[in-house]
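Sample intake sheet
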Amino acid sequence: EGFAVTPERRIELQMERLRSRPVFGILENKLLTHSLLRHLGAPTQEIAYGALASARLGEWPAYSAAQLRAALGKAHGWRRGAVLKPATDGGNVGTILLSGFGALENGSLQYRVDRHDGQRWRRLRWSTEAAL
């Protein structure tokens, strides 16, 4: 398929490869991998907020906009910014780099955003609501 693979097709190919031989299925999910590595005593980064789309699994709750909003509020003041990543995408697609820089008149926090769209990085400005 060359290099012109859509983000969706790339994930399909990745999953076909993972499922073609014995492998721990847990490794395709960043949150579950984090739990496994921490349980094994390996050093891990702190996760300020992690959740699964629709249902709780182990220590990871189902997604909550209110909890994500609270985590974004904390991250707004972090000098080094924050990273939002999909739990199951192995590439840069969906990765969002946030750096807080102020607030709107309605109190919504503002962020400088670098976002990968599957083809290239884009620089944007978002409010808290856009990140949700």
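Comment: The mean pLDDT is 80. The longest strand covers residues 96-103.
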